[in-house]
Each structure stands twice: as C-alpha cells, then as structure tokens.
TrEMBL record:
Official protein name in the record: Radical SAM protein
SUPFAM superfamilies: Radical SAM enzymes
Comp. bias intervals (Polar residues): 1-13
Record-linked PANTHER family: ANAEROBIC SULFATASE-MATURATING ENZYME HOMOLOG ASLB-RELATED, RADICAL SAM DOMAIN PROTEIN
Keyword S-adenosyl-L-methionine: yes
Pfam families named among the record's database cross-references: Radical_SAM
Cofactor dependence: [4Fe-4S] cluster
Lineage summary: Bacteria, Pseudomonadati, Pseudomonadota, Gammaproteobacteria, Lysobacterales
Gene3D superfamilies per the UniProt record, alphabetical: Aldolase class I (3.20.20.70)
Superkingdom field: Bacteria
Domain Radical SAM core intervals: 26-260
Keywords from the UniProt entry: Iron, Iron-sulfur, Metal-binding, S-adenosyl-L-methionine
Length: 417
C-alpha cells in the first residue's frame, strides 16, 4: 500500500477534505523550492540555511542527483494530470544553485519542462551571481529562467555579512555577474533580473539603499526582506530600528516616479490593506490555499516552506520524499495542514488590534517562540503597524474612501476549526 492509498483511509480529516477540493482545478498553482545545491561558495553569517540551527544539509547530497531529478519530473507530471494545475513554478535554490554543473542543470530544466507539457511553467533561480557567465546566460535564455540576484546594498553594506569562505567581500564579483545579466536583458535575451535584499538598519541609510538598488543598479523588481529571525533569535532592543528604516524605505517607494519599479514587500501589505472585503472572506482565503508551496531537498525530501527551518528544525521532517510520494500525500499531510491553519489563525495577543484583519500577526516564521510556538505577534509588530498606518494614509490621499479602508479593517477574520 503506497502513501496515497494509506492517506485515503482517513478521508474525513481536514487535510483529506482539502485534497479532494483541489480536484475541482480552480486556478491551482504549485510552487516548489528546489534545493539543487546544499553547498555555497560564500558564507553569509545571517544565512538561515547554514547557520539557522538546522544542520540537515550536512547529511544531504551536496548536489541534487539525476535520480532525484527524474523523481521530481514524475511528481510534477502526476500532479498536473491529477489536479489540472494552471501553473508550476520551480524556484531553484541553494546554497548557491550555480554550483551545480551546467550539464546537470540543463538536464534538470529539460526534464521538468518535458513533464510540464502544456501547463504554464516558470523557472526562477536565486543566486549571488558570482558564477554567472555566457554559458549560464545561454541556458537561462533557452529555458526562460528568471534570475533573482541576492545583494544587500552598496559595497560597504553588502560586504559586512556577504563574505566568501576566505572572509573577503563579494560585492564586486556579484556586480560583475549582474552586468552580464543586464547586458543579456538589454539584448532581449532574458528578463530583467530582480534583487533580493536583506535589510539591516545598522549598515546603510534607507534612502542610500533604495537609491543604490533602483537608481545605480537599475533593478525594477526588488524584494526587501526583514531578517528571518524570531523571538528566540532577535533581542527586543534590535527590533526597534526596523520601524523607522522600513517607513523611510516606503517613503522612497511612495515617491517613485518610474511605474516599472515594484517593491514586493510593500505591495503585499498594500494589497492586504486595500483589497475589497469580499476578497478577504473565509471563502477567498480558502481558495488562496490552492497556491501550494513546499521545499524539496537535494535528497528529494519534502518539507514546508524553507524559511521555517529557522524556527524548529523538526518541522522540516515530514517523512515524505518525491521518489514515492505524490501531491495528494503532500496535501493530505497533517503537519502541513496544521501549519497552513496556523498561518490564518490570529495570535492570542493580537486580539483587538485594529490591523489584525490585514496583518494577522505577521509572517509565521517571525512569530515563533520556544514554548508558545507561533502563537505570538511578529517580532516586527511595531514596524508592521506603522507601515499599515502610513499606507492607509497614502491610500486615502490617493482617492480611496476612508469608509473603504474602515470596511476592510472590519472584515471578519476566517475561523480556523
């Protein structure tokens, strides 16, 4: 009896009911964070993967093998056929994914593309760009791979923590790879690369950071990330600096005149604040869960969203592997179902907060504390409140009726059984 057959025996569990609802095929999307390399050519001191307390990478293959690639292709093909998926997005991750040899990366991309057939397929790769060369760009062009570049601002800020194994800065080598990517974009070969930046108020002024990424380096798609810390890893005094820093970054974005510039972090909050109440209803939140995200290790093990390894490493151990599991097994997994419910459940301390219907306590991994789990507000609670307040003012200044904002904030929260 395989895992899918075993899971059907408990057909009245919330996870099993959810899996059955997926078969309706309404706008289903599958996103897989694929760890093709569990090694890196640099050693960022804040890296959640290598220095976050989970040492599973030490026991996994350094690089994904051909057998695991074939298992993944079969997994994707079966998922598409069973659930009529509209979109498959493979987020190629590491470590540093370009440490995987190009022929093996080419085989991986080709196998997944063949398995995806007529379904929309998106490849995204997150890299420090230090290994980018013409041969890699040719591969990106052929398989339409979107490239995200990890960079933390100007040289002084970037090279504080983004160091190689010999404690040397990486900025210049990242910029060299970025220049090749930018030229390939200018030649019409690949999409414009995006930027992923971990913010640190101690290292750089917010306006300088924004100007460097958007003006100097000409990124149009930027995601500013708050450090992947939680109540156990970030002391309270350090949290206060993020409030004014993120507000200043938002003012830079608010003043932006180039309509092509998109800051994902702020857009996500703006959307949560300004969406119509109906789209925040329990029904819509339920259907939003059809955007399935999970991680696959270089060994083929299936785990929750990769960032959760910063909380409790045991959460990453589901006992599922793509060599013998299907998407049905993932959807029916009780631990993943519990994590999904926690995402929508309001932390106890957030009851009565005027922003609770749009914030919901913040990202789950920022809520974690040993002993109370995820039943805590985000460590960036004050930052989020200040941003929502400023965004509400901005929305009203832009013509959105105050009554519409008020209605959104009074939207009843979905009840999690």
């Amino acid at each position: 009896m395989n895992q899918t057959e075993m899971s059907t025996e408990s057909g009245n569990t919330p996870a099993a009911r959810y899996e059955r609802s997926m078969r309706a095929g309404r706008g289903n999307s599958l996103q897989i964070i694929l760890k093709v390399a569990e090694r890196c050519n640099i050693a960022c001191t804040y890296c959640y993967f290598f220095f976050g307390g989970d040492d599973s990478h030490k026991f996994n293959p350094a690089f994904i093998g051909d057998d695991t690639v074939d298992d993944l292709a079969a997994f994707v093909e079966e998922a598409i056929e069973r659930y009529r998926l509209d979109l498959v997005r493979i987020i190629i991750h590491g470590g540093e994914p370009l440490m995987l040899k190009r022929p093996r990366m080419e085989r991986l991309l080709g196998a997944i593309a063949a398995a995806s057939k007529a379904t929309q397929l998106q490849f995204t790769i997150q890299t420090n760009a230090m290994l980018v060369d013409e041969a890699w760009i040719e591969l990106f062009e052929r398989f339409n791979v979107y490239v995200g570049v990890s960079i933390d601002g100007p040289r002084e800020a970037n090279d504080t923590y983004r160091l190689d194994k010999r404690s040397r800065g990486t900025y210049d080598r990242t910029i060299a790879g970025l220049e090749l990517l930018r030229k390939a974009h200018a030649d019409g070969r690949i999409a414009r690369p995006g930027a992923l930046c971990v913010v640190n108020p101690e290292l750089v002024d917010a306006q300088v950071l924004y100007g460097h990424l958007v003006r100097d380096l000409e990124f149009h798609n930027v995601d500013f990330l708050l450090p992947d810390d939680n109540h156990d890893s970030m002391p309270e005094p350090r949290r206060a600096a993020f409030r004014s820093f993120m507000l200043e970054l938002f003012e830079c974005y608010r003043a932006e005149k180039d309509g092509r510039v998109t800051i994902r972090f702020f857009n996500k909050l703006l959307y949560a604040l300004t969406m119509k109440p109906f789209f925040a209803s329990e029904l819509q939140r339920y259907f939003a869960r059809k955007d399935i995200v999970f991680t696959v290790s270089s060994a083929g093990d299936i785990a929750p969203d990769d960032i959760l390894r910063m909380t409790d490493p045991q959460l990453m151990k589901l006992g599922l592997n793509i060599r013998d599991a299907t998407l049905a097994d993932v959807l029916r997994n009780e631990r993943l179902d519990e994590l999904a419910d926690v995402t929508y459940r309001l932390p106890t301390a957030c009851g009565g907060c005027e922003w609770s219907s749009v914030c919901r306590g913040g990202d789950i991994y920022h809520r974690y504390r040993r002993g109370t789990g995820f039943d805590n507000p985000s460590i960036y609670c004050d930052t989020l409140k200040a941003l929502f307040e400023r965004m509400a003012e901005t929305a009203v200044d832009s013509g959105m009726p105050v009554e519409a904002i008020d209605a959104r904030l009074k939207t009843p929260l979905p009840v999690v059984a």
